[in-house]
């Protein structure tokens, strides 16, 4: 592929599992503030070793 491992992986993800890649891409389109809230929430849940409902609410992103 003549690319570094990260770039090669990015190019392979949509080919290997398009639906899963779309979920990642949707997350990456979230505003920075919302991604930060999500990351904080994940950290708290992992530290507590518990389950929780995600506090982030969003509307459809079909309009992108």
3D structure, described in words:
- The chain has 64 residues and is an all-alpha fold.
- It has a domain at 5-48.
- It is built from 3 helices and no strands.
- It is extended and about 40 Å long.
Annotation keywords:
64 residues; mainly alpha; 0% strand; extended; single chain
For the largest beta-sheet, the strand count, sense and barrel status come to: none
The averaged pLDDT comes out at 83
Count of separate DSSP helical elements: 3
**Number of DSSP E strands:** 0
Sheet-strand content, in percent, reads under 5%
Q: What low-confidence regions span 5 or more consecutive residues with pLDDT below 50?
A: none
What structural category arises from helix and sheet content?
A: mainly alpha
Explain the layout of strands and helices.
Blueprint: H1 5-16, H2 18-28, H3 32-48
């Amino acid at each position: 592929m003549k690319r570094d491992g990260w770039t090669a992986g990015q190019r392979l993800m949509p080919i290997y599992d398009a639906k899963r890649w779309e979920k990642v891409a949707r997350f990456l389109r979230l505003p920075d503030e919302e991604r930060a809230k999500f990351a904080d929430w994940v950290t708290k849940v992992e530290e507590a070793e518990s389950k929780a409902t995600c506090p982030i609410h969003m509307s459809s992103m079909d309009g992108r």
